[in-house]
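Input sequence (321 aa), recorded before submission:
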Amino acid sequence: MPATACRRKFRHIGRALLFVCASTGFSQSLQASDSGSQPRWKVGHDLTFNRTRTKELQGFAPSTSRSNVHSLTVRRQLTPELAGKLAVVGLNHRTTDDRIEPGFSKASFLNWKSVGVKAGLEAEFFGFGFSTSILAGHDKYRLVRADQFSGALAESRSKGWHIYTDASVHKDIWLTEWLFLQPAATLRHAVAHADAFNETGAGPANLSVAAIDDERLSSELGLTVSVILPLETNGLLSPFASARWAHNFQTGPYSAQTSSTVLGDLGDVAIARGPEADGLRLTGGVLWRLPFGPEATVAYTGEFFKSSRSHAVTAVLGFPF
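Predicted structure, C-alpha cell format:
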C-alpha cells in the first residue's frame, strides 16, 4: 500500500491513541471516523480500574486508593475534519489509610462517588489534531476519621460538584508505512466545590468544616510510538507505547476553615493531600479494529511520582454505524 494511502486509511488511529495515552481518571470513548466513507456515528463504552499507593505526605498517613471509572459515549462525525461527542461518566473511589491507629477497629477512609456529563470536539487542520472537552459532575462524599484524642470514629457526609476542562494538540509523524510517532501536549483545568459538613460520632471531638472551593491547573507533554499491523480480514492490530511528563502547577493540600466544640476555631486546616509537582506516566497497550465493525483497546498506565505509584488498566469497546 502506498504511504499516502496508508496514512489516510489509518489516520483515525492517532486520535484513538491520544485518548488512551492521555486519559487520566475520567475517560472518553475510542475515536474512529476519518472521512465521509467511514461510519458517521459511534457508540462506545470504556472502563478503567486504578490502584494507587501513596507514602506519608503533607502530614497525611500512607494510604491506598482504589477506583473505577466508566463512561458511555456517543460520537458524531460532523465533517471530515470535525467530530463531536457526548458522554455520561461515573466514578467510584475509595482512599483508605494503610495503618489502623492504636485502639481503633478500622482505619480512616474517604469514599467519593460521582456522576457527570462530558461534551467535546475533535478537529484536524494543517496536519495537526486538536481536541477539547468539558466535564461537569455531581459528587457525594463519605469520610470516616479516627480521632486520636477522643478514641472515637467521626463520620461525615457531604455533596459537591466539579468542572473539568482540557485542550490537547498532537501531530502524527509517519516514519514508515506502518510505524508512526505522535508528540502531544495537553492542558487541564479543574474547579471543585464541596458543601460544608459536620462530623458525628466523636462527641466533643466532632469537627465542623466550612465549604471547600478548589482550583487546579496541570499539563502533560508526551510521545507515543505505534505500529500498524494489517490483518487478513482487512482489520488491524496496533501495539503502542507512550511516555508523558506530567506537571501540576498547584500542589498544596485541600483545606477549609474548621472548628470543634472543645477547641473552637481551628483556622484553615488541611483536609486532604494535594498532588505532587512532577511525575512520569507510562502507557502500553494494543488497539484492535475491524473495517466498519467493532473495535477494542486494552491498555496499562503506570503513574510514577516521588511519593506515589499508580497502576491502571483501561478497556475500551466501540461500535461504529
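Checked by second reader. Residues 141 and 158 are 5 Å apart (CA to CA).
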